[in-house]
């Protein structure tokens, strides 16, 4: 151990000296096979299980954790929420050397706090594959209340790297799986045709509250669990951890109110609520009381309401929660239309939004807007408990302003250094940034030991973000002032502005501050706080090379393709792109000699926060035997049938996602064009069209069968009509 961390304030997280007890765990990391959905799929297990084993300590212990990597690729473990030496934090190449294949690493650090925490891989997308587990630190005084760890997670049979690639290709397959495409047919059916038109006029993607479709949600690695030996009147403390990669969960209890007593490991003044949402990577300690004989449901429902898991508490007949119905997406779309301008900027709408006090998504909740299905309600009542149901308008939903630290959290009386960060994003290309820059595009943020740091966060994106700071607790500044709650994760909703503060109590090191939605983090949504004059960590080798590996995550290029094989021709496109750059090729190859063939290649730079602009350079080659002598709309001799030229131009995404293209080639020929792909007519039917000043035009349609292929047809002004199959990747 190179040094001992001293916790300077955090009175709700106990001060301890070095403990006398060393507690050792050996964790064996192996590739494995799992079956949650009826299909056998690869995962990553620790000690043969998903989730990983619960690690339990008592404040004052010294943790000694041996990680044995039996895989053919490197790994890491981050101890989420723990105050520890920087080199033990577990972010590969930033704070800690990765655990190389078939090798062992030892993490050793003092336990200087208590509470509910967790640990997970910080290498690539391994967390999504099963590398996560609970990390529980007990107080020195034993608790007299029974406890149960409730570790929530999400599972997809799809390879996480394919999920990540697909998100960057703007696929709507996940929306199809969730019945959330918000197509024009559905818009007309629900009386929201004008809402859909305005939504696309403002160049906004379909409304959603989550990015990925998950086949299953899990509680402690299971589809459901139970604790049956609980008697009426008995209390149980649920240590709830959201260990999912990208899912928020609504928590409810059919036996009455829940008492929240801690958040992210730090104690709070108990507050009774009917429901709360737990953000990705957050934890809450919740005490519930079994009201009478029966088995009561503690339910966790995904925010997009595609699934839920249950923990049954008590013995007897099951007393189920009323299920949460499908979201009313068009109501959310209507609200976002009011919040967004056509230029892509967010209106403040004259409201002071902060601390989860105004849930803009509430317009989509059927239980609040009064459209709960009578049929489903009747069905639930047949198996519902007799406990008095709280009227919907009287139900209490937890927000951050209700949390109060049990003791003063006021920072030391020293100068503040203040930063303002804007959370920004582009759903169409899945670019998530802070101040419109990825982590690789910004310098480290220097701070000094002993000063206070204030961060003003403004969420100007359409998604909520759980922002996590490594190695520190921060205060979420709320109405409780000196008793504002301590956390290490803050969920910030769209349009909100929140203030967090922390004391720079560490001696050295780089500390990651990032969105904890796994795929947002991987796309670059984060910052690095670096203590001035920090020594070089010798375990990382060359610091410049190590940092380049950290930055490589958001610089990665992703391959996408659409290849049509129809009766008249093959039309296709291949894209190879990252956050800012795109290499793109399009072709049309006729299956009749007189149709000829053509190809256009572009290499462009995407500009602006919303990336509406892409200047490019390119090459255009085409040949069609017997092409006529025509003129374009500018009375220039057309070379559309015989040319091999270099070009330069610019593409601009207009309202309704119409892409305008203006270019000039090396023969001084000018061409303008307009195109639109993927017009969502129904859930699976898409239309497309193209026209340019060379008097070329195309219209087409496809019916999506699976994620990777569609039935398609199109008419081309040069190659006539055709039908067949289109493959998409």
Q: Could you characterize what this model shows?
A:
The protein is mainly beta. It has a domain at 558-728: Porin (Beta Barrel), CATH 2.40.160. The protein has 9 helices and 43 strands. Strands 32-33-34-35-36-37-38-39-40-41-42-43 form a 12-stranded antiparallel β-barrel. It has a 6-stranded mixed β-sheet with strand order 10-9-12-17-14-15, with no helix packed on it. Strands 11, 13, 16, 18, 19 and 20 form a 6-stranded mixed β-sheet that branches. A hairpin with a 4-residue loop joins β21 and β22 (431-434). α4 (193-201) packs across α5 (329-339). The protein is globular. Residues 29-141, 148-301, 421-530 form the Plastocyanin-like domain. This is Multicopper oxidase.
What's the gist of this structure?
The chain has 729 residues and is mostly beta strands. Helices cover 10% and strands 41% of the residues. It has a domain at 558-728: Beta Barrel (Porin), CATH 2.40.160.
Characterize the biggest β-sheet.
12 strands, antiparallel, barrel
Number of helices: 9
What proportion of the residues form beta strands (DSSP E)? 35-45%
Mean pLDDT rating:
90
Strands of the widest sheet, in order across it, are 32-33-34-35-36-37-38-39-40-41-42-43
Secondary structure class reads: mainly beta
Overall CATH architecture of the domain at 558-728:
Beta Barrel
Q: What overall geometry do the principal axes of the alpha carbons give?
A: globular
Query: What is the CATH C-level name of the domain at 558-728?
Result: Mainly Beta
- Rg estimate, integer Å: 28 Å
Which ranges are low-confidence, i.e. pLDDT below 50, for 5 or more consecutive residues? 1-19, 372-376
GO molecular function, one term: copper ion binding
Protein name: Multicopper oxidase
InterPro entries: Cu-oxidase-like_N, Cu-oxidase_2nd, Cu-oxidase_C, Cu-oxidase_fam, Cu_oxidase_CS, Cu_oxidase_Cu_BS, Cupredoxin, CuRO_2_CopA
Domain Plastocyanin-like: 29-141, 148-301, 421-530
